[in-house]
Please model this.
Amino acid sequence: MLDTATVVAAIRSDAGASRRLLRAAIERRRGITLLVSVPLLIEYEAVMTRIEHLKAARLSVANVGVLLDADAAVAEPVRLAFLWRPVLADIDDDMVLEAAVNGRADAIVTFNRRDFIAAAEQFGIPVWLPGEAVRRWENRA
Model:
């Protein structure tokens, strides 16, 4: 489960762990499956198309649309059978947690471990930094 900041980092940096994870998921490499819910895809789009992210990534709104279409095409859709709100301080983080719980994610990948870790552990979901997720994936593959 990739949180929004991780997906934004993937478009802003060619060399980061976030980009490696997103690329591996889109290319359907073994061991990486994206989980997405409709609200989470809408959140991704809203944040990724902010002018500061578009400029930093040197992308257009249309480019982001193509990327999100690719995400949606390969992702496992998560039906939100149960809503777990409010649990976290940020309502947008609750959206990530809900998709992770309902989708039975192996982990939440985020730069925001501090805010996620206690809540995610209640559901048995570890919280990893993108670099840690890449290391774990590479060691499993």
